[in-house]
Fold this protein.
Amino acid sequence: MTKTIQPSQTAAFYGQALLSFGASLTAMGLGVVYLPAPGWIRAFLAIGLLYVVTSTVTLCKVVRDRHELSEVTTRVDQARLDKLLAEHDPFKVEG
């Protein structure tokens, strides 16, 4: 059976992603707080920002789960094919 190569993420990439997310969320939060608008408009924008963040996290989870499911299906199909090929003898004569 062939061993698949698992891609890995470096600690620097993970840290950069966290830092970028934190910076963007902080910048948007400060922008909403210091916006020269009435309080109800800032509250509406803050709720909208939270909704976008939670929707993004949910979308990332769904995409990851779908990718993992396709990998499991591919592994099962590959294992069945490997078993079939291992049991097949091209020189076997029937009869």
Summary: DSSP finds two helices and no strands in the chain. The CA atoms of residues 34 and 42 lie 9 Å apart.
